[in-house]
């Protein structure tokens, strides 16, 4: 019996937004329509659009025209949309329900032959869950944190690093003018890729990341040593998930599903630095600006390559796979490989060694 021909596919974007999502959407639509003559649907707000299937957006050559340089995603996203553990309110109380069968039914009802899921670790785990239930799924790696395994780089990361580096460039002039220490908090819950890359690119003097617990004494001594050597200002970059040796990460709050929202480490550090060094110290939280704006040229090209490659995985019926960058090639890897473990900064890796050679302090014993 011959396989059912592919005629209609869909794409969804899940997790936090980032520059480059629209590049993927555009590439998927262009490739599917121009190369294969398929119909393409956009599933709005991640898997929510398959729980409530009126949230569907036809993606034509006209609807995706001119979206390449736009940040965000034209089909919306959410990081609180796991159909296997969907939170709903009933009789005034919140409860967790499994809507995965409902998603499978709506997938079939829409006449879909495959789904491209764009997202990070959490979204890929959901995609794997649906693949195991029989849905033909292909993944595209997206996260500004660059922490998804099995790919050299995720799109969105380069754009976030550029934004963070530009912030450091702008802070440098005001820090130098007022002879201040600026403590700048970057995104990075479990991994310090953004802090590390932007810290090196932005010529920071201290970089604190989750992978290397720090001593505030060593940080303070490093800043005082800079002052003694004639430097009248300093830039301290700290990832939101960084923690002191023997201490805890800084949490702002905890959601009903148990998810911890990190942040506030910069505000905790600044007064301690000022007290121990006598140097005027200010705080800057870069926050969600790292997710916004137009994608860099690198992310536009990478997102386009990922979207095109994802369609070709579908054409070859290589489901349960995620497109990935390996060196200069785009390849297909199993989604299980991508979600097996988080890709973290290696404390003794090349880039950390480069930073140390530049005199950057990580607040540890090697500083």
Report on the architecture of this protein.
Strand 11 and strand 12 form a beta hairpin. Helices cover 35% and strands 20% of the residues. It is an alpha/beta fold. The model has no long low-confidence stretch (mean pLDDT 93). It has a seven-stranded mixed beta sheet with strand order 3-2-1-6-7-14-15, with helices on both faces. A four-stranded parallel beta sheet has the order 9-10-8-13, with helices on both faces. It is built from eleven helices and 15 strands. The termini are far apart.
Strand content: 15-25%
- The averaged pLDDT comes out at 93
Q: Main beta sheet, described? A: 7 strands, mixed
Low-confidence runs (pLDDT<50, min 5 residues)?
none
Share of helix, binned: 25-40%
Going across the biggest sheet, name each strand in turn: 3-2-1-6-7-14-15
Task: Based on Cα principal axes, name the global outline.
Answer: elongated
CATH level 3 topology of the largest domain? Rossmann fold
Sequence of secondary-structure elements:
EHEHEEEHEHEHEHEHEEEHEHEEHH
Radius of gyration: 22 Å
Q: Could you say which structural class the secondary elements and strand pairing correspond to?
A: alpha/beta
End-to-end span in angstroms? 66 Å
Which architecture of the largest domain per CATH? 3-Layer(aba) Sandwich
Task: Give a count of the beta strands, DSSP E runs of length 2 or more.
Answer: 15
In total, the number of domains comes to: 2
CATH class of the largest domain: Alpha Beta
Q: Count of helices?
A: 11
In terms of topology, how is this protein built?
Layout: E1 8-13, H1 21-36, E2 39-43, H2 48-51, E3 56-58, E4 86-90, E5 93-97, H3 100-109, E6 114-119, H4 121-132, E7 137-141, H5 157-178, E8 181-186, H6 193-201, E9 206-208, H7 216-228, E10 234-239, E11 251-254, E12 260-262, H8 265-277, E13 281-285, H9 297-315, E14 321-326, E15 329-334, H10 335-338, H11 350-357
Parallel strand pairs: 1-2, 1-6, 6-7, 7-14, 8-10, 8-13, 9-10
Antiparallel strand pairs: 2-3, 4-5, 11-12, 14-15
Helix pairs in contact: 1-9, 5-6, 7-8
